[in-house]
Design a protein that fits this description.
Shape: globular
Distance between the termini: 9 Å
Number of helices: 12
Structural class: mainly alpha
Helix content: over 70%
Strand content: under 5%
Order of helices and strands: HHHHHHHHHHHH
Oligomer: single chain
Largest sheet: none
Number of strands: 0
Length: about 300
């Protein structure tokens, strides 16, 4: 179980580190084009390893049932395509720090989706966590604009930008649900490859329509390198680790580890984008972290604080 927890933790840290990198990238490339490049890059990188497994004496990795294929398709649609679309467009209207705080509501949203879709039990503490998470979002949206620092990529918070980032929160919560459905049924490497391949195919028409004369030469070489590394970390390794971990942990409990996403995102935003942490961010983050603690039962003492392994 400790191994599963470590895998889930590392997965969310990698996702969080990609937030400011994505924000820097969309200053030079349309958001959908950036997402398409990310998905295609990961699919191409994994193809030499994933595809040969289909042609051995005992083909492995391909979902065996229509239900598994449906879960894989929904995982790609919500957890990858819509998550990236909402996040990248949202980052155009909000700071990376605020985006990180908003995404820390994912644990509460995951618990809600797991209860509604998978039938996992929703406790009073879980409901209280959701209320606190909403309070944190309200604190951010009702506060005066809290723009970034001196870096040119920093931006002021807007209601639309924050709403789009929250759409990414819902998408990521659904990703956790469908990943749980596939966990242990389909090999993590194959899920990672097929999900990125499906995402690239789904997004290609929209990316092409919004390219607007995009030229790869407009993106600095150092940013291409950083984006490539981030894409492989976020789109390949993070997905692989999450699939390995969630196979042994209920979706609602696994959602706890998404709280690490905003921590990594904020640290990276301060280091890479020069954004500053404001009082509004602090109030919102405090509410959201309290929501995570209450909703997952971490404030309760004794052996019942963490449910027994599934």
């Amino acid at each position: 179980m400790r191994t599963a927890y470590l895998q889930l933790s590392l997965s969310m840290i990698l996702v969080g580190l990609s937030v400011p990198v994505s924000k820097a990238m969309i200053a030079h490339a349309p958001p959908l084009v950036a997402s398409e490049i990310r998905f295609a890059l990961v699919a191409l990188a994994l193809a030499p390893v994933a595809v040969p497994a289909w042609f051995g004496r005992k083909p492995s990795g391909v979902p065996a049932s229509a239900a598994d294929w449906a879960s894989l398709g929904l995982l790609a649609l919500f957890g990858m395509v819509l998550f990236n679309v909402f996040l990248l467009y949202g980052l155009q209207g909000t700071s990376a720090i605020t985006a990180g705080i908003l995404t820390s509501t994912i644990p509460a949203m995951t618990a809600l989706c797991a209860a509604l879709i998978l039938g996992e039990r929703m406790t009073r503490a879980g409901g209280a966590g959701i209320v606190l998470a909403v309070a944190g979002i309200a604190a951010i949206n009702l506060a005066p604009a809290a723009g970034g620092g001196a870096h040119a990529g920093a931006s002021a918070d807007t209601l639309l930008g924050n709403a789009l980032v929250f759409g990414a929160v819902v998408s990521e919560a659904l990703y956790g649900v469908f990943a749980r459905r596939l966990g242990g049924r389909v090999a993590p490497l194959q899920v990672t490859f097929l999900a990125n391949l499906a995402s690239a195919a789904l997004l290609l028409p929209l990316a092409w329509a919004t390219a607007d004369g995009f030229s790869a030469g407009d993106v600095p070489g150092w940013l291409w390198l950083l984006f490539a590394v981030s894409s492989l970390g976020n789109g390949a390794l993070a997905v692989f680790l999450w699939m390995r971990g969630v196979a042994h942990v209920p979706a609602g409990r696994a959602g706890l580890f998404t709280g690490l996403l905003p921590v990594a995102a904020m640290l990276a935003a301060v280091a890479l984008l020069g954004e500053r942490f404001t009082a509004a961010h602090g109030i919102g983050l405090a509410c959201v972290l309290l929501a995570i603690a209450v909703g997952t039962g971490m404030l309760r003492r004794g052996p019942s604080a963490i449910p027994p392994p599934a």
